[in-house]
UniProtKB/TrEMBL annotation:
It comes from Streptomyces iconiensis. Belongs to the UreD family. It holds the Pfam family UreD. The lineage of its organism: Bacteria, Bacillati, Actinomycetota, Actinomycetes, Kitasatosporales. InterPro entries: UreD (IPR002669). It is found in: Cytoplasm. This is Urease accessory protein UreD.
Amino acid sequence: MPVGEVTGGARTAVGGPAEGGAHAACAVGAPDGVHTSDGLHATAGVRAAHNGRVTTLPLLHNDGPFHLRRLRSRDGRARVSIVGAMSAPLGGDRLALDIHAEARAELEVTTAAATLALRGPTDAPATYDVRLTADEHATLHWLPQPLISAQGSTLHQTYTVELAPTARLVLREEQLLGRTAEPPGHLTTRLTVRRAGRTLLDQHTDYGGPAPGWDGPAVLAGHRATGQLLVVDPDLDTDRESVLIDEAESEAEAEADRAGDAGGVHPPTGQAVLVPLAGGPALLATAVAPTTTRLRHLLDTALTHLRPART
């Protein structure tokens, strides 16, 4: 989750107004989590429901470092921003988010800042579990800012996604391996997506520290930013070949839009591939780049390649 600065292992609270003039949501339950000798244990949650006219947010559960704020709706979707109330995750922390879009609800969840994984006062790994559920005809967008794996940290992150057959999902995750001029910590992630009770995607990654070959040509090839964009939508056209996108293409397109022409050639400093998944109407873009800015360009460019199914 978004974090403040940490000094000597202490947790520092952060504040500030919500984006877009939003107002703070009411906390439900104990907002301070459970502090143990091994770290902080906290679970926050969001539940979105459709009342027949619009999407409402009957539950915003703040806990530990998670402070949930309503944002102005956009394109009919209710929106929530996660603001960091303290530095986290630190070593030993056990953090979880439960996000549920009920039938016909439309929900977008983002974070106010990057998540910074730090070493903390214990050598135990931190865990950060995100559980996403979308019921029939629901739409769920999970669009956080990047996760930064700082030197000395150990973080195990999991995403568990449950989708009804008619649900729609847009999930973006981005990782930056190490801050400027420092090596990364040890970061493992697992993304498991089930649609209609069947596994659509089960993916595990392991970066930094003891992981063998993580920086080699077969994995990151020297890049320090990596991420992916998963789109699941019954209306997607997935009868297509894979698409290779390089950073030169995304930068050139952006420059052409600004200049009003197609001039300019940019060196390829990152790449992405967009592929259909065999288990359902889903497309997955996976990208590597030297910076998070260029990584975002690649993932945004991948979105422009999406098109609805043929009728």
